[in-house]
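Q: Sequence in, structure out?
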Amino acid sequence: MVSLVAYGILFLYFGFTAMLRNAYNPFADPLLLVFAGALAGLVAPVRALLRAGAGYLRLWEIPPAPSSRVDVASLNRLDHANNVKTLVRAIQTNPYRHKFLRVNREWLIHNIALILGGKNYLAQAGPEL
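A: Exactly. Output:
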């Protein structure tokens, strides 16, 4: 669409430039009224034809509202969200935290030391790590 408009502006510019360089007066041309009438006579039928075609193809018709069918995918998403909430509540309990610390003790110590002290700290660290 943009290229068509750009071409139209370009051709309009070329046309005006040609008329100005040749000192052409379009209003002195006896066929100006014939061209204007022919253009007006073509615009109305073409416009009506395009509107009828768009109506036949239902180009601008708004689709109907969705039916009242149950969307299983949305129910699954709601169920997943509910399960995530349950998991978050379980994570926030003390028994879960203690079990997590017991199972992941070595990994936690290594990564906390790495974050707080960097690689040099791990290289110089004693047997306590």
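Residues 87-129 form one domain.
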